Amino acid sequence: MITRNEKETIELGKKLGSLLEKGTTVALKGDLAGGKTTFTKGIGEALNIRQVINSPTFTILKIYHGDLPLYHIDAYRLEGNDYDLGISEYEEEGIMVVEWPEYYAQQLPEDYIEVLFTYIDDDSRQIDFICHGEKYKKIIEEMEMTC
Question: Which CATH number is 81's domain given?
């Protein structure tokens, strides 16, 4: 799927967010300024989160409250470290969104949704959905059918 502006990226995140159930992990991969946090804003809208969602780069983890809790992790600063953020007991209660999941790979569950962001130009992104495990296959199919 290709989004041509920030609003479209948020709407695509909102569409995915409306399909998620508690306990779901979404791993966002892509370059800096690739649209990962913008996409997360859409997931937050779908969860009726009223707080401003921004990148947790310096705090690593931000927790937002809506219909379900949203655990927003930016693992960029974890590169080369084996940190346990200690949220495994909470992640089943809400939605976990992980930016830079390659630096958090040991802690990702077996089943998760990967969203790959490819920079096209200043406004446009190609966004691909990849299912890891069978658990979220229907969600990916639904995303493909509605977009």
Answer: 3.40.50.300
* Tally of domains within the chain: 1
For 102-117, the pLDDT digits (tens) are 988 888 889 999 999 9
Characterise 78 by phi-psi region: left (phi > 0), alpha (psi -120 to 50), beta (else).
Answer: alpha
Domain that holds residue 70: 2-146
DSSP run (H or E) holding 41: helix 36-46
Triad 55, 7, 123: Cα angle to 5°: 80
**Amino acid in position 129:** F
In DSSP terms, 67 is beta-bridged to: none
Classify residue 124 by its DSSP letter.
-
Per-residue pLDDT of 50-69, as tens digits, reads 999 998 777 788 999 999 99
Strands, E, within the chain: which ranges? 2-3, 25-30, 61-64, 70-74, 95-99, 112-119, 125-132
Which residue has 């409306």 as its token pair? Answer: 18
The whole-model pTM stands at 0.90
Query: Would you place residue 147 in the very low, low, confident or very high pLDDT band (cuts 50, 70, 90)?
Result: low
